[in-house]
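Notebook, bench 3.
Goal today: get a predicted structure for Release factor glutamine methyltransferase from Paracoccus seriniphilus so we can plan the truncation constructs. The sequence was checked against the plasmid map this morning, with no discrepancies at the termini. Length recorded as 274 residues. Pasting the sequence as submitted so the record is complete.
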Amino acid sequence: MTIDEARRVAAARLGAAGIVGAARDGDRILAAILDVEPGRLRIMDNRALTESETTRLTAAISARAAHQPVAQIVGYRDFYAHRFRVTSDTLDPRPETETLIDAALQLTWSSVLDMGTGTGAILISLLAARPGARGQGTDISLQALEVARDNARRIGVAADFAQADWYQGIDAGFDLIVSNPPYIAAEEMSGLSPDVLNWEPHLALTDGADGLTAYRTIAAGAQAHLNPGGHVLVEIGHRQGQAVSALFQAAGARTRVIADLDGRDRVVQAWFHG
C-alpha cells in the first residue's frame, strides 16, 4: 500500500465509522507514523509503506474508529508554540485554551500558579514565553503530574510540580493564578462526544455537580494567594461567563470576560484592589 492509498483507506474507514474530519484525522495519524508533518503527505514521494508502518497504521485507525482521540493515539498535541505529550490521564489541550495564554502574556507577572495543570500546557507555554519567570503547577493526579514534568523537561522549561487539591499546601504568593478546571456540569456529561466522554479523564472534565465547584474554591482563595496587583485567569464554558464572574465579584474582585477567536466567552480575568 502506497502513501496515497493509505490516505484514502484511512479516510474511508474513519468516515464509515462516523468520525468527523475523517481525512484530517487519517492524515494526522499517518504523518505521525511516518514522522512527518501532515502537510508533507501531499508532496512527499508516494512510496510503499513498510510492513511495520502498515501494521501500526491499521491499529491506529482501528483505535480512532473506536473514537479514541488522535492525540492519545499519536501521543502528542501541538499547542501554542510547542508539542506536548498527551496520555489518557490528561485532557487533550484545546486550541481555545490559547486564549488564556494570549491574555496572560498581556499582563505583567514574574510568578505563576497553574492549578489542575494536566499536561502542563498552560504553565509551560507561559514560562517558555517569559524567560526568568517562576512557575508552579499542581494537580490531584500523580499520573498527570508525571506527564507535565516530562513535557517541561523536553521543552526545556524549569517549573515546580506538586500534587495538591487546589490551594492545599500552596503558601507562596504569585503574580498570576491560572486554571482550566473541570467545568462541565454532571447533567451535561451525557451530551459529550464519545471521543471525550469515553476516553478523557472525567476528573478533569466535571465536578459531578453544577460545573462551578472549582471556581468557588479558586475565587475564595485567590486574594490570599496573589501578590499585590496580581491577576487570576480561568478558562470557562462558553455559557459560564456571568456565573463565574459573579463568584469572583462576591470575593471582592473586579472582572472581565474574554472571548475566544470564535467569539465565545472563554476566559474570566479577575483582580483585586486594596
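The first strand starts at residue 76 and ends at 79. The mean pLDDT is 96.
Flagging this for group meeting.
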